[in-house]
Design goal:
By secondary structure, this protein is an alpha+beta fold. It is built from 2 helices and 2 strands. Helix 1 links the parallel strand 1 and strand 2. The longest helix is centred in the first third of the chain and has 13 residues. The chain is globular. The two termini are about 20 Å apart. The model has no long low-confidence stretch (mean pLDDT about 95).
């Protein structure tokens, strides 16, 4: 199964949603799971927003838009 999260820049909302889904769903569905994030107007090379991951209590991923 593949889940795609999408936002505008792919630095805050979609990477955070992907991380939260991965945390909650990995292993729960009983099937292989791939969770991706993308942006509709993303520019290459920007890191994930540390403020949103910190607020969610998640480690900052090694992510680039």
């Amino acid at each position: 199964m593949r889940i795609l999260t999408v936002c505008t820049a792919n630095i805050c909302r979609s990477p955070l949603a992907a991380a939260l889904l991965s945390q909650d769903l990995t292993g729960a569905l009983g099937a292989p799971l791939e969770i991706l994030s993308r942006g509709t107007r993303a520019e290459d090379g920007y890191p994930a927003c540390p403020v949103s991951f910190d607020a969610a209590g998640l480690p900052l991923p090694n992510h680039e838009s």
